[in-house]
Amino acid sequence: MVEKYDTVVIGAGPAGTAAASSLKAQGQKVAIVEEDLWGGTCPNRGCDPKKILYTAVEAKERADLLADQGLNTQNSINWADLMANKRAYTQQISPGTHKSLKNNGIETLTGHAHFVDPHTIKVGQQTIEAQNVVIATGLRPRMLDIKGKEFLQTSTDFLDLDEMPASITILGGGYVAFELAGIAASAGAKVTLIHHNNRPLKAFPEKLVKKLCDQLSENGVEIVFNQEITEIQKDTEGYRVIGNDFNRQTDAVFAAVGRIANVDQLGLDQIGVDYSTKGVKVNNHLQSDVSHIYAVGDSAASPAPKLTPAAGYEANYVVGQILGDRTEIEYPYIPTIVFSLPKMAQVGITVNQAREDIERYEVKTVDMKDWITYKRQHEKQVLVQLVIDQKQDKVVGASCLSMEADEMINYLALLIKHGYSAKEVSQTLFNYPTTASDIQYLY
Ligand SMILES: Cc1cc2nc3c(=O)[nH]c(=O)nc-3n(C[C@H](O)[C@H](O)[C@H](O)COP(=O)(O)OP(=O)(O)OC[C@H]3O[C@@H](n4cnc5c(N)ncnc54)[C@H](O)[C@@H]3O)c2cc1C
Ligand SMILES: NC(=O)c1ccc[n+]([C@@H]2O[C@H](COP(=O)([O-])OP(=O)(O)OC[C@H]3O[C@@H](n4cnc5c(N)ncnc54)[C@H](O)[C@@H]3O)[C@@H](O)[C@H]2O)c1
Known about the structure:
It is built from 14 helices and 24 strands. With 443 residues, the chain is α/β, with parallel strands linked by helices. The longest helix is centred in the first third of the chain and has 19 residues. Its cofactor is FAD. InterPro entries: FAD/NAD-bd_sf, FAD/NAD-binding_dom, FAD/NAD-linked_Rdtase_dimer_sf, Pyr_nuc-diS_OxRdtase, Pyr_nucl-diS_OxRdtase_dimer.
């Protein structure tokens, strides 16, 4: 007998588990399908394991900045212990997530899901039917189609390395490339980061990216711009990375050149659902071309950045749609951060957007290196750019580069969302001297 569900969710990452749990809590009969690790990318091979590795690296870098400033320091990263610490965390994620879904009364199916018709899904030998379907299948690393591509490793491999190689080469210039470069360099590897043009992290302000590159270079990362890599060769010593005018030996090569959607193996062609490498094409209700099939999180070609908080937000929105809400999706400002050394974060109207409308927006650049928060930490690269809407006389966007950028951008996200004026900020008192109290002087 074919089991029938109110909703079937495909993919058990942050988006899929949020949608399934919420629909179940609202009384629906729900099934969720996962073909790999329960919990998906973020806790198994993304945000969380990365942040565990980053935590040790951040502690080391902060201590190193205070060497000869009153802290006796001879720190180094013990990669084997750090990896054991990471694995102790990640190993319980998949079984734990699976168990908690089952305990909540959600039917869990293990295997690859694909559509047989718009209401029928096959998982291995099992066939199930759904009134609504939520596609939440995420992204996978994009591989380069070059000679020797089989020698390329990915962020998933990096986050589970038994040993840190003596030298590594990272191809790419986005979030993943800059985060892995910082971790590897701090863990003692000789790191080369190769970008195919001269504008990595292009959604972030050029001034901040330049300072981040300067700091990584000072920490020993070699950043090579305008270099298209055409071939990877394996040799007796490791690998050779070859470009038009580039030829270098390295112990490991990682591709961090973007991610593509896991939607090409779902059988969407035969049910009339359009998609691309960016994900399932969706309307303002996150519906695909077939109205009862929704897509959320990384696998939706929606305007949201492909991040965990955005995935959860879209999942909760679609729960509302399935339960009868008909309002179009509206996104709040979504903060983004690169956990490199230092951190770089932004929220709201970006500096790049502001430069396109100079009548309306003013960009205020503040070098905070000599402020007590940063001076006491001996930080070398600290910069904040605020975007001010001149009509409203309010801060509507911010970008930060510093080791405090994660917390500072969260405060700024709140102030921007609620439209606080400089006067209102000055009437809110924060502990001094802290990252929060700096904001009063910024505004
Ligand atoms: C290295 C790295 C670091 C990151 N760091 C951060 C960070 O610091 N902060 C942040 O906000 N975001 C970060 N991200 C992004 C974040 O991980 C994603 O935005 C988030 O996981 C998206 O959730 P999702 O549920 O949409 O997709 P996913 O978490 O990718 O889950 C999709 C699930 O669907 C499953 N699946 C796919 N196809 C099928 C199928 N046909 N049948 C059954 N199951 C299927 C997959 O196995 C997977 O488990 C990072 C990503 C990476 C790669
Ligand atoms: N801290 C975070 O929130 C975080 C961390 C990691 C990943 N993520 C998510 O994962 C996504 C993917 O990250 P990513 O860094 O893989 O992709 P990305 O899209 O952010 O960056 C890819 C970079 O690779 C460059 N590139 C493309 N082809 C290249 C080539 N042949 N040689 C060299 N460089 C090339 C691109 O110009 C771009 O700069 C992010 O957009 C984000 O949504 C988020």
